[in-house]
Amino acid sequence: MKMKKELSGYVFFIFALSAISVLALITLFIIARGAPLIAKVGLFNFLFGMEWAPSQEKFGIFPMIVGSVSVTLGAALIGVPVGICCSIFLTEFAPPALGNIFRPAIQLLAGIPSVVYGFWGLLFVVPFIRNYLGGPGLSILAGAVILAIMILPTVISISEVSLLALPRQYKEGALALGMTHWQTIYSVMLPAAKSGIVAAVILGIGRAIGETMAAIMILGNAVALPSSILDPVRTLTTNIGIEMGYASGDHQQALFATGIVLFAIIMVLNASAQYIVRRRGK
Q1: What is the C-alpha to C-alpha distance for residues 56 and 137, in angstroms, rounded to an integer?
Q2: Which of 68, 119, 181, 276 ranks highest by number of CB atoms within 10 Å?
């Protein structure tokens, strides 16, 4: 019996080690392929260069960093308030029968392929923006709307779990002190669940900044600094997705270097979310 237990422990350890090893190999591969280009061009010139023209040996990704940040920020401004309000509704106001309908529907959003979101945005969101707000339609605003919908399952699910995990005494004590239901939610429950909600927001932002297929279809992919939310942009992920198929030499290394930047951003976001969750657990 003891031998079986030890053998099981070794097997699970090997599986865990294999997962970490795959992550380490991917990281080393990306760094090995992209670091030479960063060393050749210079980190400052690569990050803050304004021109992306691989045929002319110009590898500046600053417009794409701005594009990624602007689209992700727009998605967060739209999706986070909606997601938190939905989680409050499901936790505090929704009848059980209605909640049993809403929760699977929200989870279904996470299973829809991103290309379907992009196709829907191309057919409905882009023409609406072009006809009623101006511009080409393929824009930051279109991307923000679609990505906001895509991050909703993450924000809603984690925020709802954080609210449901609160001790009942918090709510009962606040109501016993004479607070209204809304005052209890706003002044007691949301602050108490703040760490979990912030983690949900960070993970949602990580989901948005890493999106590729839908972004390629609705952002317009213009490598230039935007002057308004109605301008087309190109993000770090779409740049890799569009050009990797035919890139070679320094061009290919520049795309891997772009992947290093993107990988670093997502690692920071995920580490922040893990830190917040652990602090909440303590």
Answers
A1: 30
A2: 68
